[in-house]
Structures are given as C-alpha cells and as structure tokens.
Amino acid sequence: MIVRRRIATVGFVATAITFGPGRMAYGMFLPQLREAFGFGTGTAGTIAGLAFAAFFLALFFTGWATARFGPRLPVLIGGVFAIAGFALTASAPGIFLMSLGVAFASASAGFAWAPFNSMVEHAVEDRFQKRTLSIVSTGTTFGIMGAGLFAAGLVFAEQTWRIAWWSFAACAFLVVFVPLVLLPQKAISGQRMRLDWRFLKSQLKAKNAVPLYGFALSFGATNGIYLSYWIEHIASAGGLTGLAPELIGPVLLCVFGLAGCLGLLTGDIEDKIGLRTLLVTLFSASGVSLLLLALLPGNWTATVVSAALQGICLMALSSVYSFWSERLFPKIPSASFTAVVMIYAIGNMIAPPLAGLASNMLGLGPTLAVFGALSFLSLPLIRGVKNV
C-alpha cells in the first residue's frame, strides 16, 4: 500500500507541473507573448511545433533511459527541464530564449510521464495498477486548473506574465525534490534491461494496431493546433464580453481542466458502450470543439463548450490509448504506450506550423475549421477497431 501511494503521489505532482503549465502555459499566454516579443501567427505555430518536437524527443530518450538507468532518472531530468524552461521564458530578453524556454518546458512532460507506467507495472499489484495510473493522470487535470487559477490571481494582482513563469519555475523544483524523497526502492530498482529493438518492431507493426496509430496521429494534430491557437483566436476576434483579455486564457483553462475530470470515467464508460462507440463519440466531440472555436470565437457559450469538450477528449483519449495499447500488446505494455504517445506527439509537432502557414492565406478561423474536419475524416478508421 505504501509503495503504490508513494508512486501515485510522485506521479500526481510530476504530471501536474509538467503537463499543467509545462504543456499549457504557452497557449494560455500566447497573446501576451506575441505582444512582448512582436511575432506573428506563423511564428507562433513554429514555436509550438518546436515545443512539441522537444516533447517527442524527450519521449524517445525516456524509453531508452528507463530501460538503461531505471525510471527515476527521466523524471528528475524532466524536473530540471521544467525549471530551466520556465526560468528561461520568464527572463527571456528576446524571442530566441523565449522559444527555447517554451521547448524545454514542453520536453519536461515527455520525460516525466511515461516512467510511471513502468513503475506501476513492476511495483504495484495488478488489481491496483489501473487506480494508481488514474491518480497519476489526475495530476494533469489539477495542474491545468491550478495554472489557470494562479494566472487569474496574478491578473487581479496586476502582475505580469513573467511573474507567472517564475512561479512555475519555483513549483517545478518539486518534480526534482519529491521523487528523490518519496519514491521507494521497489519502484525504481530491478527495471534495467536491454531493449530488443527487433522484437519491439515486430510487435508494434501489427496490422490491428493501424487504427490506434491513426487515431493517435489525428488527435495529436487537432489537439496540438487547438492548444496552440485557441486563446489567440478568441483574443484576436475581440475577446469575450465582460472579460478582460488577460483573463481569457486562465478562465478557459480552468474550464478545460475541470471538464477533463470527466475523462477519469473513461474506463467505466468503455465497459458499458464499447471501444468503437467511445471513439466515435470522442472524435465527433473533438471535431465539434474545433468548429465551435473556429466559427464562434466571441460567443461565451460556444467557447466554454469548446474548451470543455477538448478537455474531456484530451483526458479520455489519454486513457483510451493507454488501455487500448496494453490490450493489443500485452507483452510490451509500457513500450507500446510510449510508441502511441510518440505518434500523438508527431501530430502535435507537424500540425501547428502547417496551421500557422495556412492561416496566413485563409485566416485562423477557417484554418481551425479545416483541421476540425480532420477529426470527422478519421472516423472511417473505426471499421478496423475491435471491441477488445
């Protein structure tokens, strides 16, 4: 009991900080960053793409480092990257260091997430594994809400965005301190192994995994675009009636995180309606979310519903990819989940720069609508999905 509670606590803290402000703060503060550093929509997309590329590379390194050195080292590296990323952004005199800081902060999530799957797999009893991983995932939701509430408080206190990033840097020290103090030896020992790349490749190229990979890539693209441009699109369209421009990001981030709590019910819902119906529902919701944002950026109801739907989709699909990959690849559950998240990260990495370029020709609203259609265009993949 002590082992699983400590793993859950450390995982909660790590994901709260690295997936909360680490992954979300750039999009939340994009209007202020553009004003401070004077860059356009295309450049904003490039910075987002670089940040997601850093996340992808961190995932790749983490898979190797966990096998070679155990799961605690990548988490500690994630904490260091979070501290450096937040501090660089907070102190940046120009766009280069700001972009580097955003990339470092995003990379921290890649380092600090996947190792907990390995810890749980090796140190927690089978009947408690799902619950423990759910607690770790819950950190993302509370981190997002916490970042939004904290940013809102700074606005009311008339503090700048730089204070927010310095505060995030201070919080990130917990990602280094807590694992060193709380992780039990059982959670980090006996997990070093030599990766059999040939075996992994032979397993992961299974044809029945194509829908899983396709859905991961699709949502990676649409979610990456959403998180990169949602606040910027609303602000540039005139904002929301009665809400200060600086509060748009914090308020909607709280909605996003609060709605994401419903994603914790994903496993129970899937048991009742099946995987195929669940996927159709989630990808339809993702498409509607982007279309509402694209077409009605100044409407309170539309933007709140859009943020809520996207929050639910992010948390629910994170859970889906975890248990779906485990069912398809029972011999390599951690490696297969990491592979799926890397495919998701490829979508994150490629789509925002493309959207930035497209917005220069079409405008941001039509571009968001086009990519929203991608969620619906992904639905034919459902024909290859079995209710495993």
UniProtKB/TrEMBL annotation:
This is Major facilitator superfamily (MFS) profile domain-containing protein. It comes from the Bacteria. Keywords: Cell membrane, Membrane, Transmembrane, Transmembrane helix. The chain crosses the membrane at residues 37-61, 73-89, 95-114, 135-157, 163-183, 210-231, 243-265, 277-296, 302-324, 336-355, 361-382. It is found in: Cell membrane. It comes from Fulvimarina pelagi. One of its GO terms (molecular function) is transmembrane transporter activity. It holds the Pfam family MFS_1. Signal peptide: none annotated. GO terms for cellular component: plasma membrane.
